[in-house]
Amino acid sequence: MALLRELGARDYLAWQLVDLAEVCLRQRDCTRARALIDEGAETAGAVDRREYLFKSRVLSARLHHAEGQTGAAHEALCALLTGAGISEQAQVHDALWELGAGVDHAGAALRAYRRLPVQTPSAAIRARIDVLSRALGA
User: What's the pTM?
Assistant: First the structure.
């Protein structure tokens, strides 16, 4: 990341910061995840990379949940649904379901993800469809 900073490659820096924040969060390194999320969001905002800014907000909500602030996590995620496109809706409902907000969110995420492969085929989306389908017995 030092090289990305040195080169001024802020697009790539935002992407790397947000992705590394996700790794740290999965490893329960909340302190490092928070720092990466904050820097990633700031960098993404500065270069107008809305997808990384959105992902940093979802990760921030997940971090709230990991820190025991479930209500704050759910509120933050629900706020992201306002004006969200189909891809963002899928991600938010998926996160809400994973954080225990109820099976209705799994269904909403699955419906949204099923609409995406036509537009955005990816292994990650197909994997989420499989997980949610199994969870719902669909």
Answer: 0.85
